[in-house]
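All the exercises in this workshop are built on plain-text protein records. The record below serves as our worked example for the rest of this section.
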Amino acid sequence: MKYANQIPCDVIMYPTAPEYAENIRQFQGCPTLTITAGGRIYLAWYAGGTREPHIENYNLLIYSDDKGESWSDPVLVIPSSKERCVHSLDIQLWTAPDGRLFVFWVQNNTRPWKEGETGFTVDGYIFDDHVHAEWMMICDDPDAERPVFSAPRYWDKGFLRCKPVVLPDGAWLNFNYDQESPRYGYSISRDQGKTYIHCYGAEKIETPFDEAMAYVKQDGSIRMLARTRVGELAESTSFDNGKTWTEAKKSGIDSPNTRFYIARTPSGRILLVNNDHRESRCNMTLYLSEDDGVTWKYKRCIDARASLSYPDVDFYEGKIYLTYDRERTGAKEILFLSFTEEDVMDVSRPLDIRIVSKP
């Protein structure tokens, strides 16, 4: 029986079990963050097991009430289920315009390996299910002393690894992609997350994981960028609020086969966070555009080391907050920094990159 889209993995609040302790983690990465109306920073990633995927992977969530100076113990973990053979992975955070905190995560089915079977096998389990299931929980008051989350609910198929985009007509656009489809997948909600309609856009440029993200341009069109295997990001544009999309093409933005981040800042500029390389996950770089993403007037490499990936960003009171990972099974670092647009424009200004977690 396949349970990934039928039964949520357990949600364990304020976990104390030793298997979730930081000091024993052999793998962790793929972080995400969001900031509440009250300034609390939530940070989440997935860990557990010896690698990804693994039947002992789990998602975890922490927060900071002092702009990242200190961090809480885990507020919750969402572990994979050996009993039901459901893998829990890739948590994603977003604060909606009304202040609610959305916690999204992915589930897919696995099964124990049997002698003679072929397939992608890790520590006795086969991971060959690419029809992912998207689940969510919502916290109505994420600034509360002890946040309370709604019951988990399945909301769509696909694989979400970026924040939703609010469209000019008020709809929410989520790029929860269908890994088995030749076209870019996404969903649209017109009732603030109560229901979603799954849609398909342009034919993909070669990619193992779409991980698309978009921003609304000054003319109201939606520019989508997506991960590829060809050494630069793909792009496609919608001129009708996400109903139809132009043919995908290369964007001219160098990028290895990994996730990136792009969004409009509160000042109106476009911020891109990306590995500035065509092949390697090195050179984590901040870009700022003053012409809607046509050119990138300002560019600052903040970390030139190898094995850097999965940037995620949010904005609060004039500052930009960023997380990314380094060496998921080596250094196992979850990194964090805050900066301003002026820090990107003036590369002489110091930046303070901090380690949030390192087993």
